[in-house]
Amino acid sequence: HQEGLVGGEANVHRSVGSAAMDGSGNIAIGYTRTGTTAPYYPSIYFRGRYSTDPAGTMPQGEYVIQDATTSKTNNERWGDYAGIGIDPVDDCTFWFTTEYGGSGATRVAAFKFDGCGGATYSISGTVSGTVVSGVTMTLSGAGTGTTTTAANGTYTFSGRANGSYTVTPSLAGYTFSPANSAVTVSGANVTGVNFTSSAAPTYSISGTVSGAIAAGVTINLTGAATASTTTAADGTYSFSSLANGSYTVTPSRSGYTFSPTSTAVTISGANQTGKNFVATAVATYSISGTVSGAIATGVTVNLTGAGTGSTTTDGSGNYAFSGLANGSYTVTPSLSGYTFSPTSIAVTLSGANQTGKNFTSTAVGGDTPLTSGVGVAGSVAYQTWKYYTIVVPSGATNLAVTLTGLSADIDLYVNNSTTHPTTSSYYGRSWNGGTTNESLSYSSPTVAAWSIGVYGYAAGSYTVTATVTTSTPTYSISGTVSGAVAAGVTMNLTGAATATTTTITGGTYTFSGLANGSYTVTPSLAGYTFSPTSLAVTISGANQTGKNFTSTSTGGPVTLFTNGFEGTTGWAQVDTSGTAGTWSQVTSGTYPTCSKHGGTYMAKFNSYNASSGSATRYYRTAGFAIGSSYTTVTLTFWMYHDTGYSTYADKVQPQVSTNGTTWTAVGSAINRYDGSTGWKQHTVSLTTYKGSTVQLGFLGTSAYGNNIYLDDALVVAQ
């Protein structure tokens, strides 16, 4: 007994099958075939198996008896006239009939297997080399067939009549020697038709991105294979393990264009290098203007169109949108309780900033707008109201409202919205008797247009004043470092304020919270020079962007990573065995007693009280890029050794990860006890990770001896 599946591929349908077996034990099956690919219409096909083929398979081809060109379009029956049988004269010939096409016509066909009724022979051999099992072996010539090599590389074609054949091996990713073999069967089995397999050679495509940006550029590969990678700190990229074929390499990063936009690459037996691109920052412009009239400060201004944004007018009613590409935009002001003329302005940017996009505000409902700190004289009749408004902008720290110079008993009410207050519904009120001044004050007031109500408990006059206190507005200076190195560059700010920051992946940096004034920005990193060496920047009511530098390697050692364990930011830990292990940062050590190697803190692993076998990884949550152009890359760190618990092998294993999930040991594990006492520097090579972005980790393993202390980790490339 045996059973199996004929076909099974998507969008091909086989039905109404008929099977029979000849006198040699060979089986054939005839059937109707349709599909969404040719042949589309109900056609007549058959296939078969030799008695020596693997059980449950029909590997002997698929042959057409009649292809149809129409199909049935009604509900008529199908298959009433289908059947297959063996000719009793020779016990070898199969006779098969069934319907086909839209008319339901029938066709009768006869066929038989090679060798049926006569002597048959076999062709066999072995595939050796890089791969042996799973190789497809195809037979053509006097007979056809396919089979697959077994686990030991052997294969056999059985039931073959005398004649000339060709055997061809194939498997994706491999080549074979010889590519095929001619075989003649003449009254005997043919053995030793052997082949040797080799992995198909692969190659690489590589290059560099330079110009306005180098690191962090996405490089996409399409064509014979698809892949994506990101340029390293020095702008280099590489795609490896590629077969011969045609490819296209395309760089991309928001805010930049590239020349060329893409490069066509053909691999034909060799690596392809120097597929380089030059990045250019997309020019950007600004839209600015002023809101005046009944209200100026705190008006929301929205930008739509080719870009979107939202800002709020400053104390003088000014607003600005910066960093905009060429295109069509619409600027629209809004503030509850006010209308604006015009309601919006269409703006087209075409190679220049657009200024003077101004609006005039008008209070809705007749309320009198107040200017912060400016008193307004007024009067009110008995048991009537007068209303005023004041806008509290974002960043306001206090709102004070007063009534002074009262000639009668007049009360003060406020709402932190444009809704008028009443004597029974209000946010706050001041109702002193007689002519005593009224006052209300709120810290961190609601950002809104406030309604101020003056109520005449008696008819009289007054002066109303609303004062909004705001913090001093601050701005930012930002830019990008590109060229030989981008990430990890120290950026120093001097002048009206001082600060230091470090460029991130992509080379960007920002100094924020800066007041108006004159500043100087200076980049620095050992092993590199920068052009320009520094930039003078003046802040005057707006952020300053595009303060860019280009780096050039001096050829000396370059620091890629440095950390003295002076803070837990950027560090994390995870238990890999047990739960007792813990890393911490301490100023001094016990068990053994020791002082830090440098700085204020050092890292501690608690192997003194963690049970033996406890293991915990202390690792960086972000990686650093190692350019492919370096010759050597070296990790050094300091570890404290002591002579206590000499038979307890507490140890640290340096590790790296290129994906944050899989961690690989680099160098050998280092035991706390090595017969010496004191700090000792250890060195580990990271050269094999050139062209990668890596995270650094230290795996501490307790043997229940003394604690482990580390300090001053450094990665240097040259």
Describe the structure.
The structure is a single chain. By secondary structure, the protein is an all-beta fold. The protein has no helices and 63 strands. Strands 50, 55, 56, 58, 59, 60 and 62 form a seven-stranded antiparallel β-sheet that branches.
What are the defining features of this structure?
718 residues, mainly beta, 6-stranded antiparallel β-sheet, 0% helix, extended
The total of beta strands comes to 63
- Share of helix, binned: under 10%
Q: Which structural category do the helix and sheet elements fall into?
A: mainly beta
Q: Hey, roughly how much beta strand do the residues contain?
A: over 45%
Principal-axis shape: extended
Ends: how far apart? Answer: 70 Å
Which radius of gyration do the C-alpha atoms yield? 41 Å
Give a brief description.
By secondary structure, the chain is mostly beta strands. Helix content is 0%, strand content 53%. It has no helices and 63 strands.
Q: How are the SSEs ordered, and which strands pair?
A:
Blueprint: E1 12-21, E2 27-35, E3 43-49, E4 60-66, E5 83-86, E6 94-100, E7 105-111, E8 121-129, E9 136-141, E10 145-148, E11 154-160, E12 163-170, E13 174-177, E14 181-185, E15 195-199, E16 203-211, E17 218-223, E18 227-230, E19 236-242, E20 245-252, E21 256-259, E22 263-267, E23 277-281, E24 285-293, E25 300-305, E26 309-312, E27 318-324, E28 327-334, E29 338-341, E30 345-349, E31 359-363, E32 368-369, E33 376-380, E34 385-392, E35 396-404, E36 410-415, E37 428-430, E38 438-443, E39 448-456, E40 460-470, E41 475-483, E42 490-495, E43 499-502, E44 508-514, E45 517-524, E46 528-531, E47 535-539, E48 549-553, E49 558-563, E50 571-577, E51 583-586, E52 588-589, E53 594-595, E54 602-605, E55 615-620, E56 624-625, E57 633-641, E58 651-657, E59 664-665, E60 670-671, E61 678-685, E62 693-701, E63 708-717
Parallel strand pairs: 8-15, 16-23, 24-31, 32-34, 41-48
Antiparallel strand pairs: 1-2, 2-3, 3-4, 5-6, 6-7, 8-11, 9-10, 9-12, 12-14, 13-15, 16-19, 17-18, 17-20, 20-22, 21-23, 24-27, 25-26, 25-28, 28-30, 29-31, 33-40, 34-39, 35-38, 35-40, 36-37, 36-39, 41-44, 42-43, 42-45, 45-47, 46-48, 49-63, 50-55, 51-54, 52-53, 54-63, 55-62, 56-62, 57-61, 57-63, ...
